[in-house]
Structures are given as C-alpha cells and as structure tokens.
Write a structure and sequence with these properties.
Elements lengths: L6 E5 L14 E4 L7 E5 L5 E5 L13 E4 L2 E4 L5 E3 L20 E7 L2 E5 L1
Antiparallel strand pairs: 1-9, 2-3, 3-4, 4-8, 5-6, 6-7, 8-9
Amino acid sequence: MSDVPINYQVNLNLPQYDALRFVGGSAFIYQAGLKGVLLYNLNGQTFLAWEATCPNHIPRECSQLQLDVPLARCGCENFEYNLVNGQLLNGDENTNTAYPLINYQVEVFNSFLTIRN
C-alpha cells in the first residue's frame, strides 16, 4: 500500500467527535488517509490513529475498515484488527496475512488532535 501524506487536525469540541472525549471512544475521519482514518481514545490522554484500509490486500472497494470498537473489521475477508495495538487477530495462514494496521502519529494540544505521518 502506498503512503498517503496526512496532516489533519481534529477539534474535540465539535459534536461529531464527542465519543473521543471518553476512554474507548472512537471516530472515523473520512477526509484523511487512503480510505479514511480510525481514531481511538486509549486512556483519556493517548489517542491512536490507524489507516482505515485493510493492509492485507490491494485496496479495493470492500477494503475500507469498519469500526466495531474495540475492533476494526475488513469487509473483504472479515479480518479483525485490535484498535489498541493494530494487530491482526484472525489472519489466514494460507494467504500469508500478517500485516498490522498502518499507524499515524497523533499530537495532542488542548482540545486539538493533529494526525500526521
């Protein structure tokens, strides 16, 4: 999968990001990344950002991940990924699926998150 430049800011005071104010909260950012970015509030101070494209096959229409907290699911092969560490939970040994989610850097400043790679 090719790298997509990302530099996106999230204002946690906006209503569409209310879920991110709580531990375990998540949001889907459609405007960033290849097929979007999954945001996850790990512990109230640490936020994780993951590319919303399944990394275990060529990007196609069904490869946009869906949030099912604490998991992300691929619509193509029903692969499941852990939002805490990005690891694939149910890989297929026959197809050598072993790639974790692509992680983006998240900087926290007051009520703003900046997502970068």
